[in-house]
Structure formats: structure tokens, C-alpha cells
Amino acid sequence: MDNIPEPDNEFDHFQSNFRAKTEADHAKFGLTDTNKSNMQTLSDAWQAKYAADIVAQNAARAAKQEKNTARQALEAELRRDIKKVYASETVTNDDLAALNLPQRDTVKTRANRPSTIPIVRIDFSLHLQHKVYFVDSATPLKKKKPDKYRGVQVYMKIGGPPPADYRECFHAGFDTNSPYFYSFQQSDLGKTVYYILFWENTRGEMGNPSEIYSAVVG
């Protein structure tokens, strides 16, 4: 029977307690000097690597946030510039093609309200973090979102019973590309988190809500 817990934080507490209790009187627990020495060496190595991993995760989270902030600023500038490009009378369709932009549409078509819903997969393997992957219900095997969808609006509820609908959740954010990344507080550890996602089109209109998805904060 394996009594060793799987999550890193629980494992760390388990090994630390085991070491402290057996180290004081290892013979009482049927352990040899070699067992004691091995435990000390391997426990020290684990604690160093575990601490380094937490630092790396925090650094990765900070780097992702900085990247997202930089992208948002650049996207805003690109949208302003692209709007001016389309407004310019000297720009031809060939010019637009060279910029990898769609040609001017002489027949104005309105973006329809999203008719499909996001399908969600949650990666909860990281400590105090969730990665929320989303694809479209019409094309679940494709990572690419539908062309006329700008991205997803993310609603969440942390802890407690499942929400009846998104109105019992808080608006966590918006993301144009999967996965959506969320970091939790230490006080959220062990809580169940519920997610409801909506597609949003280029006019800012949301479609129908996804199913309710959930995962535990580890």
C-alpha cells in the first residue's frame, strides 16, 4: 500500500514529518544508520529542488504576465495602425495582401453572434495554478478558434457548491489564445474551482455559456 501523497506540497510535508520523527530515534523505527543517512541526503536534495521549482514557477508566472501585458499593448497599437491603413485611400488590395491583411470587403458583413461554445480542459498539475485550454465545440480537434471569434470571456467561482450559472461567478478575464492561465492564493489550496467560458465575436457579443468545468487547486 502506497501511503505517499501525490501533490508536491503534501509530499513535502509528509517527508519532512517522516524525517523529523524517525531521525530522532531511527533504531526505534527499525531503521539503520544507512537508512538515516540516505534519508538526510535525499531529503536535503528534494527540498533544494522543490524550492527551486517554486521559484521557477513564480518566475514563469511573472514572465507570462509581462509577456501578456506587452502583447496587449502591441495589439492595441496594431489595431490602431491597421484601422488607419484601411482608411487610407492610397492603400490597394495588393498592399493589404503584402501586410497579410484581408482585402477590403465591398459588401459589409456583420459578425454573427457566436453559435458554438468552448470545450474546456483544465491542467491543474502546477502548484497554485490552472491552465485552462479551450477549443470550439464545432471543431474540437482543432486548436484554432473560429475566424470571427475574438476570444473567450472567462468566469470563475472558487470554492463552495457548483454555480447555477455564470452570474454566481466572477469575471476572471479575457483571452485570445488557449490556454488561459490563472494563479491562486495559498488560501485557495484544496478548493474546487468552477469555470464557465463564452466565445466573444469581433463586435464584443458573447455566445452561449460553456458547460461548467471544475478542477481542484493543488
Could you characterize the architecture of this molecule?
The chain has 218 residues and is an alpha+beta fold. The protein is 36% helix and 24% strand. The protein has three helices and eight strands. The chain has helices spanning 8-24, 33-87, 93-98, and strands at residues 118-123, 129-136, 149-158, 170-175, 180-183, 192-201, 206-209, 213-216. The strands form two sheets. Strands 3, 4, 6, 7 and 8 form a five-stranded antiparallel β-sheet that branches. A three-stranded antiparallel β-sheet has the order 1-2-5, with no helix packed on it. Helix 1 runs antiparallel to helix 2. The radius of gyration is 25 Å and the shape is elongated. The two termini are 23 Å apart.
Helix/sheet category? alpha+beta
- Approximate strand percentage: 15-25%
Largest sheet: 5 strands, antiparallel
- Helix count, DSSP H or I runs of 4 or more residues: 3
Features:
single chain; 218 residues; alpha+beta; 3-stranded antiparallel beta sheet; 8 strands; 36% helix; elongated
Provide the fold topology.
Layout: H1 8-24, H2 33-87, H3 93-98, E1 118-123, E2 129-136, E3 149-158, E4 170-175, E5 180-183, E6 192-201, E7 206-209, E8 213-216
Antiparallel strand pairs: 1-2, 2-5, 3-4, 3-6, 6-7, 6-8
Helix pairs in contact: 1-2
State the gist of this model:
The protein has 218 residues and is α+β, with helices and mostly antiparallel strands. It has helices at residues 8-24, 33-87, 93-98; strands at residues 118-123, 129-136, 149-158, 170-175, 180-183, 192-201, 206-209, 213-216.
